[in-house]
Amino acid sequence: MLRFRALPTKTMASTPQLILLVDDEENALTIRKLVLEQAGYDVLLASGARQALDTLAAQAVNLVLSDQLMPGMNGVELTREIKKRWPRLPVLLLSGVNELPEGVQCADGFLSKTEGPARLLDTIAAMLTKSRVQARSA
User: What's the whole-model pTM score?
Assistant: First the structure.
């Protein structure tokens, strides 16, 4: 059984945070979903950018975690569309390529998949905390 360290309770909101996970690879979706759920997050899945946009139109989420390299619409293109419609929604891009993709600055964060689950969870926690602070001050 896979085990990952859970986030400290004080970094989590009293209500579980909902993350939309976007990837065209089923195995990647399954593994990341397990990691996020073990850390206390609720997770929705989308197998591509179009499905992600449909999900976001129907369901409010706290953060989008998307793969960069996907057929049709890549992660940067998805992020740009998300930011047009939901400018305050945090987006974290992941890539198996260690180079920063062109246009990545439109996202709120970028990680290489090689950085591992601990770094992923730390980054998500920081982004969600920042998002909550910004929402309170707005």
Answer: 0.87
